[in-house]
Amino acid sequence: MPRIHWLDVHPSPAGERLRAALAAWGHEIVPGAGPGSLVLVAEHPDPRLVPAEGTEILWWVEQAEPEEVSAVLNLRPGWVLLQDRPLEAAREAILHLRQRDLGSEGWLRQMMHLATLDELLRLALGRAIRLSGAKGGAIWLRRDDLFYQRAGDGIFPEAPLPGQEAADLVRRGEAYLLVPSEQLGILRLADPKEPPDRFLRDFDDMAPLLLNAWHLEESRALSFKDDLTVAQNRRCLEAELPQAVRSAAANAEPLALLFLDVDDLKRVNTRHGHPAGSLLLEAVARTAQRLCRAHDRLYRYGGDEFCILMPGTTSQGARKLGERLLQVLQEHPLDLGRDHLAVSLSAGVAAYPEHADGAGHLIAQADHALLQAKSEGKGRVVVAG
């Protein structure tokens, strides 16, 4: 009868179900850590929970961030599974662990059920920096003829790179092309100490996952695209905002939401016609998109309302963007042929965790600040109190 050690750090009903299944599969369950395979039941992977004994560990957890998974697997060979996975997945994982069947991409396969594209990129960049001995780095992904930074630690500017500039960096050996067959993106490292082969192997292992996540993101982008403007739609915001709040909380970073309302759109439609109103909305969205950073997200919330989600940004940073957008729009009236239309908007700002403790609360606070801006005379930016 195969023996497996059992460590219940945070007991749960899912843990009891797995324990009963292991017994039914013929395993002898030994309480506590010990030599050989170990099942560790916890709320999330935590390096502080890794025991002194245990050759390999199956983590059976309620939730897990990519960085947590990477941290525990760097300390001890193992597998990380969420407790909502089928019990058969745990049985298969234990079999792989006993056979040491992790392979060159073993660290990566732990992530297959957890990682979004951004999570994969963040994890891969961290490993590349660590394996290369670099001071820092960043990853840009291609979109049309530009490369946009999607993961980075601040050592390189966030500005988009024209395709030719990215190609020149690769040609000079200052950047490395990711998934060359698709020209998915580029990796730049600051002062790497190791040769490329040392840290690029992971990206070869990762190519199928990156491409799948990229194509999934592209297909979702089509369904999340506003029909009229360059912005994403409200459905996209409702899908992405909770995830952005969770990420901000996990990384102890601020997250700002800027709500925008185009002033007097109904009057424009009445006086100049609905086509002019549509042109106005398109112009506001294009200008906002141009002023946003690469990782900011622009959404059309509905009708004459837009919002901008700004990761890693305080309310004051969002206020500055709102004021800059208002200034640019006021300085460039919309050309209607025979007439020029003055453009104005009102804006409300709220930030997590400064003003709100969750996604719905953040929307409500930003919307309340927007209503205050409208009531105070329009054409201004108000920060939530």
Automatic annotation (TrEMBL):
Which CDD domains does its entry note?
Answer: GGDEF (cd01949)
Pfam families, per database record: GGDEF
Q: Which residues form the GGDEF domain?
A: 253-385
| UniProt cross-references to InterPro entries, sorted A to Z | Diguanylate_Cyclase, GGDEF_dom, Nucleotide_cyclase, Rev_trsase/Diguanyl_cyclase
**What's the superkingdom here?**
Bacteria
Q: Which SMART domains match?
A: GGDEF
Q: Catalysed reaction(s)?
A: 2 GTP = 3',3'-c-di-GMP + 2 diphosphate
Name this polypeptide is given: diguanylate cyclase
Q: Which organism is it from?
A: Geothrix limicola
